[in-house]
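Email to the structure team, subject: sucrose synthase model.

Hi all, the expression group asked for a predicted structure before they design truncation constructs. Nothing fancy, just the tokens so they can compare against earlier work. One-line instruction: predict sucrose synthase, return tokens.
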Amino acid sequence: MIFSMARLDRVKNITGLVECYAKNTKLRELVNLVLVAGYNDVKKSNDREEIAEIEKMHGLMKEYNLDGQFRWLSSQTNRARNGELYRYIADKRGVFVQPAFYEAFGLTVVEAMVSGLPTFATCHGGPAEIIEDGVSGFHIDPYHPDKVASLLVDFFQRCKEDPTYWEEISKAGLQRILDRYTWKIYSERLMTLAGVYGFWKYVSKLERRETRRYLEMFYILKYRALVKSIPLAIDEEH
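Reply from the structure team: attached below.
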């Protein structure tokens, strides 16, 4: 199974994953698709963007006749149940796919990897740092869904021929999280940063206004250019 869990926002590209899956005959022969996202019924949502995504999802289900191959569950608020979902998919030797156009960090990516799920995640944003491509998971480009589908097909075919390959990626993903993203590591880094900031503030004697000017200068010189380099989703309606 292919599994994904996210808000039903356009940037999360969940409907894009469904369309990517639906259009690839070989992928549909190999695996089923399971999603946990938003509401199933437009009447339950008050968010315009989510309503549009719900309608699009139902349209894709009808257009590609996904009955029997696709299961769409509404968002789950029970954390223990969500954890069991990850583990259930892992027990069935499935994968986790995070297809967002951009993801600041990627909490679900960490959750999936620590559950032992081989993970395919967007190359735009935080997941590109979390995953070592081809070693502890795979980077995917949501702007090229055909390549994403082909990568998934290749993975499942290889696992079919060599079952140890699934275990290899699964273990490498778990080890990556244990090495880089545990609460112990996070807290130690946070304390270090707090110490560095405290020392800098103590020795600098900068007032708040001067600090703000410094940060604005840093943004203009460095980060504004980076923001422009991030690709945006193209609105198909325009």
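The first helix runs from residue 14 to 23. The radius of gyration is 20 Å. Ping us if the truncation boundaries need rechecking.
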